[in-house]
Amino acid sequence: MPTYLASYDLKETRPDPHPTFLKQAAAQGWKLWILGSNNVRYRLPNTTLVGTFDSLAVAEARLEAARLATENEMGGNVTTSKWIVAEYGPARFNSDERQSA
Asked: The organism sits in which domain of life (predicted)?
């Protein structure tokens, strides 16, 4: 299955929807950490997620499902003002936050 990266912006509201969105995104298969070839996990930049899904359409649907679940849990509108989902290929990355796999 292919791996996808997603980057998004949530419209700022009170209360902040971001912690709830991250919890819901994890429930939909999105992760905050990416595994490097050195078997170390690197924390992705804020508002960036990685996930492995059957297709681009499924990855997009899972991102939207996280938004809807956030909206349902918070009981108000949650707006994704911008987003992109792209298939992840060969890449280089670094982070100041790391974990052993």
From this structure: Bacteria
In this structure, are residues 14 and 75 in contact, taking their beta carbons and an 8 Å threshold?
no
| 3-class secondary structure per residue, 54-88 | CCHHHHHHHHHHHHHHHHHHHCCCCCEEEEEEEEC
Q: Read off the tokens for 61.
A: 């649907």
Handedness of CA 82, 47, 45, 85 (dihedral sign): negative
The residues, any chain, with a CB within 8 Å of residue 57's CB and separated by 6 or more, are none
Taking the model in full, what pTM does it have? 0.88
As a whole number of angstroms, the distance between CA 7 and CA 64 comes to 12
What does each of the 101 residues of the chain score in pLDDT, given as a tens digit? 999 999 999 998 899 999 999 999 999 999 999 998 889 999 999 999 999 999 999 999 999 999 999 999 999 999 999 999 999 887 777 888 888 87
Residue 86 tokens read as 């792209």
